[in-house]
Amino acid sequence: MNKFWLITLGIIAGIVALSNLGPMIGLAVSLVIVYAGVHYYLRSTTALAKFWWAFVGVIGGLAAISNVPALIGAAALAGLWMIYRQWNGQSVSLEAVKESDPFTNFEQQWNKLNK
User: Fold this and answer.
1) φ and ψ at 100, to 5 degrees?
2) Among 15, 24, 51, 95, which residue has the fewest nearby CB atoms (within 10 Å)?
3) Helix, strand or coil for residue 91?
């Protein structure tokens, strides 16, 4: 891809990511609240504690739903990562990831040893 278009797409993706930084932070905080609610719900023994932590988890879930624009920011960050990889001449396809996967390489070596 032409360097001009990479720069243009990078600037646009950067602006989108920065404009959605608030919702991304809000989503991260609300997901921590959901995690804490579920974690302590599973550890609690009394019915009142289970009710409280379920309530905390539901409130955190509602807060996470309200931060749906953070997904646009996450997609913009993924786009920036792909543009960065393309700029450096690295492959952005899944085949390159599969080739560098240690488990795939292990299976290939294991099959060669068993022949």
Assistant:
1) -90, 0
2) 95
3) coil
Distances in Å between the Cα of 30 and the Cα atoms of 4, 50, 67, 78, 90 are: 38, 19, 9, 21, 35
Question: 25-61 pLDDT, tens per residue?
Answer: 999 999 999 999 999 999 999 999 999 999 999 999 9
Question: Distance (Å, rounded) from C-alpha 42 to C-alpha 40?
Answer: 5
Per-residue tokens: 76: 């913009």
CA separation for the pair 31, 29 (Å, rounded): 5
User: Are 56 and 31 contacting, i.e. CB atoms less than 8 angstroms apart?
Assistant: no
Statement: the pTM of the whole predicted model exceeds 0.85 = no
Note down the domain range covering 42. Answer: 3-114
